[in-house]
Fold:
Amino acid sequence: MKLNHLNLVTSEVAALAGFFTSHFGFETVAMRGKDAFAILRGADGFALNLMMPGKGQSAAYPDGSHIGFFVDSPDPVHAKQAELTEAGFAPGEVEDLTRGGFKSTTFYCMAPGGILVEVGSSRT
Structure:
């Protein structure tokens, strides 16, 4: 079984789509309904759907909810953090952590629409 897609609800569809296309290698496949719904595709074929909340609903997620991107080593983590800083997104500092016996290098960044994004790598 393969994970096919993820659907995120956000009040900032166009801005979040721009974030993922500019900084995470996604391409916009479709943008519909005055920037109310976007379909993005990653290099591996993964579909990331972004949509406005329904009328009278909010686009809120529980604390700790996030999207994680994984890279092979700490160097790209530092490079992505610097890239997002340069672009004005104010990502958190890169941290070296130990989780479940694995060491990781990671940082978090708040994307448009209040979506938390993690970029990390791990090693034994």
The beta strands are 5-9, 27-32, 37-41, 47-51, 67-70, 95-99, 102-111, 115-123. The chain has two domains: 1-54, 61-124. The radius of gyration is 15 Å.
